[in-house]
Design a protein that fits this description.
It is a single chain. By secondary structure, the chain is an alpha/beta fold. The protein folds into 3 domains: about 200 residues, 3-Layer(aba) Sandwich (Rossmann fold); about 80 residues, Roll (Luciferase, domain 3); about 100 residues, ANL, C-terminal domain (GMP Synthetase, Chain A, domain 3), CATH 3.30.300.30. About 30% of the residues lie in helices and about 25% in strands. Strands 2-1-11-10-12-13-14-15-16-21-20-18-17 form a 13-stranded mixed sheet, with helices on both faces. α5 links the parallel β5 and β6. α1 packs across α3, α1 crosses α8 and α2 crosses α3. The chain is globular and about 65 Å long.
Length: about 550
C-alpha cells in the first residue's frame, strides 16, 4: 500500500487515543484531542478554498498552532511550506513567490508586518490566517491593495467552530509534502516528496528501531505494544530534521515535547517536569549550549528520565558527546545522517580517529560524476541515496535532473554533493560536502572535519571553516570562531597545536578570526557566505 501521513496520524490516534502526543511548555494534548483539533483546522482551511496540492506557507515559530496547521493541511491534502522566520524581506518574498503559496499562516506582529510589506508583490496569495490579534499594518495593506484584488484575513480561532467529522476526501499517498532547504549557500529550494516516499525514507517506515511498517493494520497493532517515548524536539519546527522527527514519533504513538524557542537552560531545567527521555538536537550549534547547561545543572536538576540525546542535520563533534557522557555516563548517543533531499540515511558511527561512517547498506553507494558506482576501496566519490527519494525540486527541472537522476536500471537516486568512499568492509566513510571542500595545494580538506576539531578546544564556543585565498597554494584553511563566556582568546599557534592532536597538519587552520557570534540559521545551519567574508576581511595569517 501507499502511505499518506494524515492516514498514519489518524490510525495512531484511533489506536492510542488516551496517550499524550504533544507537551507544549507544560500543557499536554492527547492523540484524541489533537485529532479533533486538527480535523477542525483542516475544515477551516477547506472552508477557505484550500485543498489538494495547494501550498500554504507556515510563517511561524514553534507553537501548538504550528503543529495543528501541519496536520490540518495534510488532512485536506494540501502542502505545508516551511518558512524560516528569521529571513529578510527579500528572502521571504522569494520563498512565498517560489513556492506559489496561496495562503500564509502568521502570528507575531513583526511577522504580520513583513507579510503586509510583501503582499502587493504576491498576487497568488488569497488568504492570510492570523493567530491572535491582527496587526494594524496588515489590515491597512489588505484594505488598500486596489486593482480589484481581494485578500481575506482569517482569524485562526475560527477553527473552534468547525466540524469535528473526518469527512475529508480519500487520500492516495501520492500527495505532495514540500520541504524548503535551509539555503546556507544560496536561496532555498523546495524539495518535493510524495507522502509514501516521505513515510518510507525520512521517517523510516514508521519504525526507526526495526522493520518498516507494511500497512495501517500493522501500525494499529504495533503502536499499542510500543512504549510511549517522551522526545523533546529542540529545533524549530520549520527545520527539516524537526518535521522528520515529529512524524517519526507520531508514527510510534509517542509524546513530543516542544518549546517556543531553543533555550538550553530551560530544556535542562524542564527535564523533570516533562519527564524528558530523548532530546533531539541539530549538531554542535545546539549541542554545545546544551552540554554547558548539563554541566551547570548536574547537581541541581534531576535528569534521571533522560536516556538518549540524538542529533541530525549538522556536525556533532566527539568532544561535545564526550562532555555529555561525562555528565551522565549511561546516555545513549545517536548521530543520524540525512538531508532534506534524502531523508534519514541511518546512524553515523565515529571511530577512534574521528572518522564518520555508516554501515553497509543497499540504500546508499558511492558514484562518480556520471553516476557510475565506485566499488574500489578508499576511492573518493559522491554519496548517492537509493530508492524512496524526492521527485525533484519545485519549479527547477534542471537542478532536479542533476540531483535526482534515474539510473539505467530504473533505480532513483539522490546525489547531493556529499563526498565519501567505500572501505574494505563495505562501510561508507563520510568526508564532507564537496561544496565546502578546500583545495590547498592539491590537498583536499573537508570543513566539517576541521570544525569538529575546533569545537573540541576548551575556549571555543562555535566555529566555521572556509577557504581563504592564498597566493602559493590557491586556498588555505581559514576559521571564524566565537569564544566561550569568560574564556581568553587563544593564539593561532595554540589553536594549531590543539588541532594537530586529531587531524593531519595540512588540515589545521592557517588563519583564524574571532567574532562575537558565529552566524547560523535558527536551525543551526552554517552561514558559509558570511564566514567567507569574515575570514577574508580580517584573517590573521602565519
Amino acid at each position: 500500500m501507499k502511505f499518506n501521513l494524515a492516514d498514519v496520524f489518524e490510525t495512531v490516534a484511533d489506536s492510542v487515543p488516551e496517550r499524550v502526543v504533544l507537551s507544549y511548555e507544560g500543557t499536554n494534548y492527547t492523540y484524541a484531542e489533537m485529532d479533533v483539533l486538527t480535523t477542525q483546522v483542516g475544515h477551516m482551511f477547506a472552508g477557505h478554498g484550500i485543498g489538494l496540492d495547494d501550498h500554504v506557507a507556515l510563517f511561524l515559530k514553534n507553537s501548538v498552532e504550528h503543529v495543528t496547521s501541519l496536520l490540518g493541511l495534510i488532512k485536506v491534502r494540501a502542502a505545508p511550506i516551511n518558512v524560516n522566520y528569521r529571513y529578510t524581506d527579500a528572502e521571504l518574498e522569494y520563498i512565498f513567490e517560489n513556492s506559489d503559496s496561496s495562503a500564509i499562516i502568521v502570528e507575531l506582529p513583526e511577522h504580520q508586518q513583513a507579510v503586509a510589506r510583501l503582499l502587493p508583490k504576491l498576487p497568488l496569495v488569497k488568504s492570510v490566517f492570523v493567530i491572535g490579534d491582527v496587526d494594524d499594518e496588515l489590515s491597512a495593506t489588505v484594505a488598500g491593495l486596489g486593482d480589484g484584488r481581494t485578500v481575506e484575513i482569517v482569524d485562526f480561532a475560527e477553527h473552534t467552530s468547525a466540524s469535528t467529522e473526518r469527512d475529508f476526501e480519500p487520500r492516495t499517498g501520492e500527495e505532495r509534502y514540500v520541504l524548503y532547504t535551509g539555503g546556507t549557500t544560496g536561496y532555498p529550494k523546495g524539495v518535493v516528496w510524495r507522502h509514501d516516499d516521505f513515510f518510507r525514507k525520512p521517517i523510516s517506515g514508521g519504525n526507526p528501531y526495526g522493520d518498516p511498517r507494511e500497512d495501517l493494520a500493522e501500525i494499529t497493532r504495533e503502536v499499542k505494544n510500543f512504549p510511549s517515548i517522551a522526545a523533546l524536539i529542540a529545533a524549530p519546527l520549520m527545520h527539516g530534521a524537526a518535521s522528520y522527527l515529529l512524524f517519526t514519533f507520531i508514527s510510534l504513538g509517542s509524546r513530543l515535547i516542544v518549546e517556543r524557542d531553543f533555550n538550553a537552560k530551560q530544556i535542562i531545567e524542564n527535564i523533570p517536569r516533562d519527564q524528558t527521555q530523548i532530546i533531539l538536537i541539530v549538531g554542535d550549534a545546539m549541542g554545545i549550549p546544551l552540554v554547558e547547561e548539563m554541566e551547570k545543572q548536574k547537581d541541581t536538576t534531576d535528569m534521571s528520565s533522560l536516556f538518549s540525546i540524538t542529533s541530525g542535520g549538522a556536525i556533532w563533534s566527539r568532544s561535545v558527546r564526550d562532555r555529555m557522557v561525562a555528565v551522565k555516563p549511561e546516555l545513549l548517543m545517536r548521530d543520524n545522517f540525512g538531508a532534506s533531499e534524502s531523508g534519514n540515511d541511518g546512524e553515523i558511527m565515529m571511530d577512534e580517529k574521528g572518522n564518520l561512517s555508516v554501515p553497509p547498506s543497499d540504500k546508499m553507494m558511492i558514484v562518480d560524476e556520471r553516476f557510475n558506482e565506485i566499488t574500489t576501496p578508499n576511492e573518493p566519490g559522491l554519496l548517492a541515496r537509493i530508492g524512496n527519494v524526492p521527485v525533484g525540486y519545485y519549479k527547477d527541472p534542471e537542478k532536479s535532473a542533476r540531483t535526482f537522476p534515474t539510473l539505467p536500471d530504473g533505480r532513483r537516486i539522490s546525489v547531493l554533493g556529499d563526498m565519501g568512499y567505500v572501505t574494505e568492509d563495505k562501510h561508507i566513510v563520510f568526508l564532507g560536502r564537496g561544496s565546502q571542500c578546500i583545495n590547498s595545494g592539491g590537498e583536499k580538506v573537508y570543513a566539517e572535519e576541521v570544525e569538529a576539531a575546533l569545537h573540541g578546544h576548551p575556549a571555543i564556543a562555535d566555529a566555521l571553516v572556509v577557504p581563504v585565498p592564498d597566493e602559493r597554494y590557491g586556498q588555505r584553511v581559514g576559521a571564524v570562531a566565537s569564544l566561550k563566556e569568560g574564556a581568553d582568546e587563544p593564539s593561532l599557534e595554540e589553536i594549531q597545536v590543539h588541532c594537530r592532536e586529531t587531524i593531519a597538519g595540512y588540515k589545521v587552520p592557517r588563519s583564524i578570526v574571532f567574532v562575537d557570534e558565529v552566524k547560523r540559521t535558527p536551525a543551526g545551519k552554517a552561514d558559509y557566505r558570511w564566514a567567507k567574508s569574515a575570514a577574508a576581511a580580517t584573517a590573521e595569517t602565519v
